[in-house]
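Lay summary

Proteins are chains of building blocks that fold into shapes. Our project writes down both the chain and a compact code for its shape. Here are two examples, one after the other.
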Amino acid sequence: MSAASAGNTYAAITSIETPDASTIVFKLKHPSASLLVNLASPWSVIYPKKYLDKDPNYFKTNIVGSGPFKFKSRTSGSTFEGERNPDYFIKDRPYLDGYKFFVSTETSARAAAIRSGRAYIEFRTLPLSEVRGDPETAGRQGGRAGYAGDRHLRHLGEPEDQALHRRARRVRPLTLGLDRYTASRVLYPIASLKDVGG
């Protein structure tokens, strides 16, 4: 994530307080429906200050965490793997022994991996040509499809409507004009937009 994107993502935060070891309080300028999602996103990693004080680039080559999986291996441009964390704080979790991600820039290879059972889920949206007539493949997509509700109107009519157009651009994206729940039902079989969220 770029510095500009990070600034916009967390722009609503005015201050952060930690009154005790297990509490964090975010004070906001205004309500932000997307803040919790952004904090839980992969780009919002947390590192101990002591490591970053010693090396501001520590995060580039070191993994720190207490999640359900631990890093196992990585083959650049091909795969990366995680294994079950035996010290995870919920003792009977995770349910999986591990996971393996396959990396491919080829759409057809990703779709074939889903169809053959080599991969269980595709985290980017496959084009309609790859999923048409195949609801199983369409239903095993995820990731960027969540952005399908974040659309902008490109054209709002004749030149006399330009004032409306300018005003609408300031309200971008026009999420109130979209019925996300109907869109999720209609788009899910072809574009993997299943869940409606912030």
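And here is the second example, written the same way.
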Amino acid sequence: MSQSKFSNIRNDYKRHSLRRDNLECLPLLQLKKWLEEAVDTEHTEPTAMTLATVDATGQPSQRVVLLKDISDRGLSFFTNFLSKKGQHIDYSPKASVNFFWAMLERQVRLDGIIAKLPVEVSDAYFASRPRESQIGAWASPQSERIQDSAYLDRRFHEYQEKFEGIEVPRPSHWGGYILLPHRIEFWQGRPGRMHDRFVYQLAEEADWDIFRLAP
């Protein structure tokens, strides 16, 4: 087999290092710190995270969603509850999220359980969205097979007319989820593939066990 043109693509990571005494005591505080640094460096889509779920056959699936909040409980995002990801979450709330900030040579992986956010939280966030995005939540039957883009355009215009002159209400099939993590790994690229990896593992009484992994 001839060598792939992709096989020689590699970078030697040299920007930062990560030490145990640099870590925050709580993993979500450490995540906030790294996220703020990604924002400050003007990283493209710093809140983009890859969400992995699993279907009833055990087939994993992943897609990029946008983080909208970090609380002391977990990470929040919003979507269509009837979408493929929503169906997966209904089947199994176990999920995994991954952030990768190439400019900082950093990655964060979170494993946990997903739950729906309270209705009032979903209502408040939906009300803050641009009007076109609100109408889009009604118009798009997310993850369903459609004939063409003209179908979406027609539905969009129909809902534009339906809600003309009034506030767009949040559809019941659209809202927020929160990922409640029990394991979070922080990865910092280092020269020679000697990367720094630290894991926060949730233990009893909400304490976090922090340990280093080999790269």
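What can we say about the second shape? The mean pLDDT is 93.
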